[in-house]
């Protein structure tokens, strides 16, 4: 078990009508003027934004609004948020939406008190504690950004998509009402389930030996996703299934599922390049395609770990051949993603042998995660390895 | 899944030499003068206190000291701590020890800023946010007080032992170095393992249906204790076993293992009376005796829940007879506690048929948990039920 530090200060309000407490909880914590940050039309049309405006007004909290966050949130809108926060002396940022909105809000909260442009932090990873407090009303369980220390922002001008990690940008308040997720379309629900499952895989497969307390907790979340995913897809308004998935999504990326381990994160790096190459690819769908390919490529480094995973998560009975058990676990993973309606090949995402080579030429030079150095810890990958994994995923 | 709020703001520093960071971490957070609070001789003789004094001195943090915390910490010493904090304008309380020291530190931190005597909060359960920040260097994994919202304090004058729960008294910093637990005697190690296991049982058995995310997480911790307990008892200086147990002990009582459930806590109530009647009884040992008896008494309310627990934690194969499976799970629980070297009958704790009746006459009128009302949620217990459970435990 490796040394670690861990902190997760988010105060969660979970359950029916959680968002009705937005105003009082923010006012209790001294908020006087919030930036209400959101995405497209759904939060407006559902009446959610109006309920939140009402809750804030009743608590005497003033509001500045900034909508229009897109998937893969972009730095230009973040800068506009920073400008609004400075101009109006905003003291909290309130995100209403999914991971993209929360990540955009995190970037605004980092940029608002700073003397330098916010991209500086994404470029240099410089740590700061001077960050506006963030609250979240979550509408899409997937990214886990409602409690995580991470945010990912795109910079179209530079053709980059990069992350910033800082414990001080973990949201201080998160309102999680499972009913807000009843209307999520099946594909988005499934992509979210895939993303959260992959947050666990990235933490489970690394170069550290067994860490039973962390591994068992991680596996318990995988099992929960496996059991609840079919329920939530078959019955989208099943409150309990939605509630279990919403809370699981938070736990998958808040950090406990990886403490004491090195973690890997190579596949997330490969996927960020893929969805930067073709922005129509949803992150969860890209992961569903790439993770089984990565697993097959790296499996030899520690097949027993894959066999253990297969036994615990998919109930596979050991055959006595660890290599075969490991491959069965990978097959089960691919089948699980397929059962959710996810693509499991790049072909299904529209790539061909020719366009894949173009994609690889585009992706490898910008594989930001490592600047050309081997990356990942279960089995460190070279650029050639990365190309091989993309080809295996076709 | 019931509505809930949850927050666990503790910043953990975990691993080898964690306590060497006490001074810098406290100074970073603005501490200028701490109350260094501890128990008996072991922290002094091991050199731990000297290392902590050195770390604080190097960071320029002034120290006021108060040792002498006893098991079942008492309000008189708490009041002395409050007086010292007021007199010396202490701004942090630093506990070095196990659950008793941390609980005493929590009570001091509550009392120090208050205009009323600290017992007021234990008596009325009145909530306050005006609490000194608390840091912990943990030496005994058991109570989970290093991250929990709870503290239990005795008042010898009133013949009472009672708890106070407040999220604002959760420690802000916790230093967990598994090496500090290498010298714990086997009985104390085993009593700690029992206490943490019972913190999970109290959360698992209640009147709420399945909450898969919480239940699976809870069960994963039970399995970790079951697997690591023999390792740590056979090989007390096994760093990884001690590390897994130390982190598990925190997770068992920090709250995640019960969110969305009502929880029960009847058995803890019964045990607090027992160890108040005979103060030589260790809390973990009292729980090892009373929990299986409670299980047998309440099992009929939902035998399927016990059968599920037996399957998951002890690997019991279902027989088709849920009642029989439930009883097997209870037998396994008792056998597990016995395997740790814990007593499993009141007889082993020195009670006889006659002295037990005296004990019951002493305990029932003061069963503080409920003031005579039925208590617990899996199956609400009357005073007669409580007496029956004590008698079953003989």
UniProtKB/TrEMBL annotation, chains A, B:
Keywords attached to this entry: Oxidoreductase
Xref: Pfam families: ADH_Fe_C, Fe-ADH
One GO CC annotation: cytosol
UniProt keyword Repressor, yes or no: no
Molecular function GO labels: alcohol dehydrogenase (NADP+) activity; butanol dehydrogenase (NAD+) activity; metal ion binding; methylglyoxal reductase (NADPH) (acetol producing) activity
Domain Alcohol dehydrogenase iron-type/glycerol dehydrogenase GldA intervals: 9-178
Residues of the Fe-containing alcohol dehydrogenase-like C-terminal domain: 189-393
Coiled-coil zones: none
Protein's UniProt name: Iron-containing alcohol dehydrogenase
High-level lineage: Bacteria, Bacillati, Actinomycetota, Coriobacteriia, Eggerthellales
């Amino acid at each position: 078990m490796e040394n670690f530090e861990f902190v997760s200060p988010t105060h969660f309000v979970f359950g029916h009508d959680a968002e009705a407490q937005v105003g009082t909880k923010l006012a209790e914590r001294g908020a006087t003027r919030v930036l209400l940050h959101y995405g497209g039309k759904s939060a407006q049309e559902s009446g959610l934004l109006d309920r939140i405006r009402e809750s804030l007004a009743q608590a005497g909290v003033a509001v500045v609004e900034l909508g229009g966050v897109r998937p893969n949130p972009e730095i230009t809108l973040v800068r506009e948020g920073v400008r609004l926060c400075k101009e109006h002396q905003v003291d909290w940022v309130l995100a209403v939406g999914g991971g993209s909105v929360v990540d955009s809000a995190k970037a605004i909260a980092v940029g608002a008190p700073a003397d330098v442009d916010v991209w500086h932090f994404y470029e240099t990873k410089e740590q700061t504690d001077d960050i506006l407090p963030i609250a979240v009303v979550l509408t899409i369980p997937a990214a886990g950004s409602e409690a995580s220390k991470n945010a990912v922002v795109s910079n179209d001008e530079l053709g980059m998509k990069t992350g910033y990690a800082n414990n001080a940008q973990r949201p201080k308040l998160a309102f999680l009402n499972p009913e807000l997720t009843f209307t999520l379309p099946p594909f988005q629900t499934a992509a979210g389930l895939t993303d959260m499952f992959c947050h666990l895989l990235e933490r489970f497969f690394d170069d550290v030996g067994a860490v039973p307390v962390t591994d068992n907790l991680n596996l318990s979340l995988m099992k929960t996703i496996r059991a609840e995913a079919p329920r939530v897809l078959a019955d989208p308004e099943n409150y309990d299934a939605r509630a279990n998935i919403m809370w699981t999504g938070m736990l998958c990326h808040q950090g406990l599922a990886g403490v004491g381990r090195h973690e890997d994160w190579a596949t997330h790096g490969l996927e960020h390049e893929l969805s930067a190459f073709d922005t129509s690819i949803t992150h969860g769908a890209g992961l569903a395609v790439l993770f089984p390919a990565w697993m097959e490529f790296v499996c030899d480094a520690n097949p027993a770990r894959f066999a253990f995973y297969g036994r615990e998560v998919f109930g596979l009975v050991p055959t006595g051949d660890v290599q075969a058990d490991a491959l069965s676990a990978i097959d089960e993973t691919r089948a699980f993603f397929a059962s959710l309606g996810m693509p499991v090949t790049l072909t299904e995402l529209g790539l061909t042998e020719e366009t894949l080579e173009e994609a690889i030429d585009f992706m490898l030079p910008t594989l930001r995660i490592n600047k050309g150095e081997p990356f990942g810890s279960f089995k460190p990958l070279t650029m050639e390895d990365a190309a091989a994994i993309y080809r295996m995923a076709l």
